[in-house]
Amino acid sequence: MDYIDQPIAAQKRIALVAHDNRKTALIEWCRQHKSILEQHHLLGTGTTGSKIEAATGMPVEQLFSGPMGGDQQLGARICQGEVDILVFFWDPFEPMPHDPDVKALLRIAAVWNIPVACNASSADMMIHSELMTRSFPRQVPDYQGYLAARKDELAV
């Protein structure tokens, strides 16, 4: 697979996700960083998104809850280039019935080379980076080039 440059814009599209035992921590993190977060487009899975919106007053585009397909919706948005950053406070001590979806979401974030923070420390470093306020390039798979190169092979 070849890679191409695709910029991440100065105004970021930030996905906010948290497992049940980590929702309070993510909400508190959002409160602490409201002045930065409100400059960007926020989206979140089900309950997490609605709780953040209620607690902070910031608009959060809400997808389905994780177990109902929200993680997969988010993964699709990443593939379509509609998410720039994933802040996912996951609970490493609690097995989730939708663990395969969570693993798939993290894999897709890695494939499409978006920054991922899985805890407050990494989210703090990310949100306070100088890259939060400006556009910067990232390498993504050249999927269109890949399809074009395999056109004859895929026609069968």
Uncertain spans: none
**Strand and helix order:** EEHHEHEHEHEHEHH
The Rg value, from CA coordinates, equals 16 Å
Q: Quote the average pLDDT.
A: 92
User: What structural category do the secondary elements indicate?
Assistant: alpha/beta
Largest sheet: 5 strands, parallel
Strand order of the largest sheet: 4-3-2-5-6
Number of helices: 8
Distance between the termini: 21 Å
Shape summary: globular
Strands, total number = 7
Describe the structure.
Helix 1 (23-32) packs parallel to helix 3. It is built from eight helices and seven strands, in the order E-E-H-H-E-H-E-H-E-H-E-H-E-H-H. The longest helix has 13 residues, at 99-111. It is α/β, with parallel strands linked by helices.
Describe the protein's topology.
Elements lengths: L2 E6 L4 E6 L4 H10 L1 H4 L3 E4 L1 H11 L4 E2 L7 H10 L5 E5 L9 H13 L4 E2 L2 H8 L8 E6 L1 H7 L1 H4 L2
Parallel strand pairs: 2-3, 2-5, 3-4, 5-6
Antiparallel strand pairs: 1-7
Helix pairs in contact: 1-3, 4-5
Summary, kept brief:
With 156 residues, the protein is α/β, with parallel strands linked by helices.
Describe the structure using short key phrases.
single chain; 156 residues; alpha/beta; 5-stranded parallel beta sheet; two-stranded antiparallel ribbon; 8 helices; 7 strands; 43% helix; globular
